[in-house]
Design a protein that fits this description.
Keywords: DNA recombination. The chain has 13 helices and eight strands. It is of the alpha/beta class. A six-stranded mixed sheet has the order 3-8-7-4-5-6, with helices on both faces. A two-stranded antiparallel ribbon has the order 1-2.
Amino acid sequence: MQAHYTTTYKHLSLTERQLIGRWLKEGRSRRQIARLLGRSPQTINNEVIRGQVQQMDTFRHYHSVYSSDYAQKQYGRHRKNSIKKTKLDKKLSEIIVHYIKDRVSPEVIAKVKLKGIISASTVYNWLYQGRLGLKRTDMLYPHKTKPIKPVVANPRHYGKFIDERPESISQRFAYGHWEIDTVVLTRAKNPVLLTLTERKTRLEVIRLISDKTSQAVNSELEKLSNQFDFKSITADNGSEFSRLSEALTCEVYYAHAYSSWERGTNENHNRMIRRFLPKGTRKTTANAVARIEMWMNNYPRKMFDYRSPNEMMKGG
């Protein structure tokens, strides 16, 4: 056998314990046994101490000796007790599965729905380990790789770039500063979603418009300007936003090409919408869109200590 020991962690087997017992009776030292088994001397020393039993000799004197059978039973008992008991039972599993299928994130499930009896990381672990009986498609945002788009110069210049936006807007000090985008459901010329997200409260506005044109966008914005306060609006460089200044009297800023993170608030909300209307959705209705908007505006947010955008609007 090897004259050195490996650092790879592996439990002693019954055969190894029997060899330890035999070699101890032959008078070998613990260090010699460690070399023969390719184990650490400390491992053998701990094993011998844990496997001690009292044995009486012919003179009725008791001596401590190593017993491989006793050591193996002790090992099995300790292994059984070392397994952490899980809180996951049938009832808890049904609750978590219900909310995940209802498009609720693990953070909100753990903190709000289950009142903190388990952590969000525990829910994620159960998900990834398959202990909830869910498939990859049931997860809100399953991990996947995306091809990297080449960054090219953007010839479009509809107005002020985001670099000119005041720092106070970036710091979300005041209500009324919005980010805007369109969400396409299919590649066919069908209705699309116009989405607006208020930067401070994360209030979401979703409208179903006829198509992805500047005329349809401006027509809807003119209606919304009578309901909401627009102090500024930040858009991407899509052609549908080329004439925003014609529909709104507020400042309009444009993000750089291939820089969706510059409108990260709105992009994250679009991902929430995709929970209900994934790519390829052929049909939806204004009522269905309104229900999604109401759900999002009543959805607890971790950043607001699990208050919703509607509660933030009310100063809750």
